[in-house]
Write a structure and sequence with these properties.
With 77 residues, this protein is an alpha/beta fold. It contains three helices and three strands.
C-alpha cells in the first residue's frame, strides 16, 4: 500500500495494519516526523516497526527519528 501524505498514511496504516512501515521524512502536508509521532502515540501502532527512507541525510533528522522509535534510517541517493 502507498499513501500520498502523512494523514493518508495514518489512515492506510489503521485500515491495513501492515507488518512494517517505510516512511519518508519529506512529505506534503504532515511531514514524516509528525506522522511518526502520531503512530507511536497510538496504542494500536506504537510497536509497529518503522523504517525511514529519505533523501534528507542530515544528522539532526536521524537523531530525531531514532528518538521517536524508528527501527532503521535509510538515506536514499
Amino acid at each position: 500500500m502507498q499513501a500520498v501524505d502523512g494523514l493518508n498514511a495514518l489512515e492506510v496504516i489503521a485500515d491495513a495494519k501492515p507488518d512494517v512501515v517505510l516512511l519518508d521524512i519529506a512529505m506534503p502536508g504532515m511531514d514524516g516526523l509528525e506522522t511518526l509521532r502520531r503512530l507511536k502515540d497510538q496504542p494500536a501502532s506504537s510497536s509497529l516497526p518503522v523504517i525511514t527512507v529519505t533523501a534528507q541525510g542530515d544528522r539532526q533528522n536521524m537523531v530525531k527519528v531514532v528518538q521517536l522509535g524508528v527501527r532503521d534510517y535509510v538515506t536514499k541517493l
